[in-house]
């Protein structure tokens, strides 16, 4: 019973810190947010932050992972509501790119994430996105919808195209004008895999 209570307390502490960080990182950005800002807003000590995340960068990594997982789930829902697997693959990529207009996603995941955590293709959340793309490409190849191509190569290129399009939209001077260009280019590139044009 005591162990369960301790585990629940630890989870509550993590949740408070992540909520505090998510709000602060979205409003101020990572570099302008101090550890004291984060802990005071959560009603906790620096020790709690160190114990649960190691440091502020570790907390950013956890927040990026959380938001990126939410982005992937949203994109997956768009894919699942599509008429065909091919349409779903395009819808998933387009949905991921569109999320670059969300201020929280833009600031935390697409701008501060790469700046402070390094190459997004190495993030655990991106590997989950890659796995979903790999599954779709495998099935599309088996169904004869796409041309013979290495599954890993096609999956990585599609996943990378969506990610880099979102990064471009987020970093552009006018994201809402960049978005349609990015989505169209993503679709045109992806359609190069089709056996026959639609």
TrEMBL record:
<keyword id="KW-0238">DNA-binding</keyword>
<keyword id="KW-0804">Transcription</keyword>
<protein>
    <submittedName>
        <fullName>TetR/AcrR family transcriptional regulator</fullName>
    </submittedName>
</protein>
<dbReference type="InterPro" id="IPR001647">
    <property type="entry name" value="HTH_TetR"/>
</dbReference>
<dbReference type="InterPro" id="IPR049484">
    <property type="entry name" value="Rv0078-like_C"/>
</dbReference>
<feature type="DNA-binding region" description="H-T-H motif">
    <location>
        <begin position="34"/>
        <end position="53"/>
    </location>
</feature>
<dbReference type="InterPro" id="IPR009057">
    <property type="entry name" value="Homeodomain-like_sf"/>
</dbReference>
<dbReference type="Pfam" id="PF00440">
    <property type="entry name" value="TetR_N"/>
</dbReference>
<dbReference type="Pfam" id="PF21351">
    <property type="entry name" value="TetR_C_41"/>
</dbReference>
<keyword id="KW-0805">Transcription regulation</keyword>
<feature type="domain" description="HTH tetR-type">
    <location>
        <begin position="11"/>
        <end position="71"/>
    </location>
</feature>
């Amino acid at each position: 019973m005591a162990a369960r209570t301790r585990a629940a307390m630890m989870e509550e502490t993590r949740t408070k810190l992540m909520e505090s960080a998510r709000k602060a990182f979205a409003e101020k950005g990572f570099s302008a947010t101090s550890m004291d800002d984060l802990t005071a807003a959560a009603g906790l000590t620096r020790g709690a932050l160190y114990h649960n995340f190691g440091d502020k960068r570790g907390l950013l990594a956890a927040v990026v992972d959380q938001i990126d997982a939410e982005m992937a789930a949203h994109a997956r829902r768009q894919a699942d509501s599509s008429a065909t697997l091919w349409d779903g693959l395009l819808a998933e990529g387009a949905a991921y790119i569109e999320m670059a207009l969300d201020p929280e996603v833009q600031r935390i995941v697409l701008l501060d994430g790469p700046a402070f955590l390094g190459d997004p293709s190495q993030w655990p959340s991106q590997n989950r996105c890659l796995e979903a793309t790999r599954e779709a490409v495998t099935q599309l190849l088996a169904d004869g919808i796409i041309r013979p191509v290495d599954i890993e190569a096609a999956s990585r290129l599609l996943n990378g195209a969506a990610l880099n399009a979102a990064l471009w939209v987020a970093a552009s001077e006018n994201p809402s004008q960049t978005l349609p260009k990015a989505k169209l280019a993503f679709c045109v590139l992806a359609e190069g895999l089709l056996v026959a044009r639609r």
